[in-house]
Amino acid sequence: MQDKTIMITIDEQGHSTLDLEGFAGRSCEKVFDDFRGGDRLSIERKKPAYYTGEQVQQEKSQR
Amino acid sequence: MSKYGVSITELREEKYLLDALREMGYRPEVHHEAVPMNSYYSEQEAKQAHIIIRRHELRGAYGDIGFVRQPDGRLTLIADELDAYRGYGERWLGHVQQLYKEKQTLAMARARGYILKKREVIQTREGQQVRLQFAVRR
């Protein structure tokens, strides 16, 4: 299983870039919101792993 | 990678803003009610702020620099326009935001049980970047 890591890069122009690895679905959203804080989002991209993990979680809950 | 985002730092929490300004060497005044700021033009209507750095602490500045609490909770910069050309413009504010965001992130992570694995300072053409890596407690 892939490790869950959070990388935040804070620049001198008042921007921060948040990069989550190994998360999926709702847990991804929670961590993302924790680190975003009250900041205004200018770019948001979900990666394939986000959906793959969510699908697996849904399949498990249907059993 | 499962999610990626870029956000613009908004100054909302007084504590981290004060910590950032103190780290930059200032002794900011804090006022529950906004108080007048000194300006280069004495005939100008006095601007008011809740957090103020007096101009004697700001090398080369014409006026005080302040932060005003807005109705939506944000703390926004208020300064003489002339001082943007004296080293207290967007770049100065960006540095304040950078220190603020790092302090806020570290405090939030500690409180919610994330583990800080690494802190790096990277020099780029656009200036310094602070990179923090966290892991989730199992």
* Main sheet record of chain A: 2 strands, antiparallel
Number of helices of chain A: 2
Mean pLDDT score of chain B, rounded?
Answer: 93
Report strand % of chain B: 35-45%
Order of strands, widest sheet of chain A: 1-2
H/E order of the elements of chain B?
EHEEEEHEE
Mean pLDDT of chain A: 80
**Secondary-structure element pattern of chain A, one letter each:** EEHEH
Distance between the termini of chain A: 21 Å
Structural class given helices, strands, pairing of chain A?
Answer: alpha+beta
Write out the strand line-up for the largest beta sheet of chain B, numbering strands in chain order: 2-3-4-5
Strands of chain A, count: 3
Largest sheet of chain B: 4 strands, antiparallel
Overall geometry of chain B comes to elongated
Strand content of chain A: 25-35%
Q: Considering DSSP H and I runs of 4 or more, what fraction of the residues of chain B is helical?
A: 10-25%
- Straight-line N-to-C gap of chain B: 19 Å
List the domain count of chain A as a whole number: 1
Radius of gyration of chain B: 17 Å
Q: How many individual β-strands of chain B? A: 7
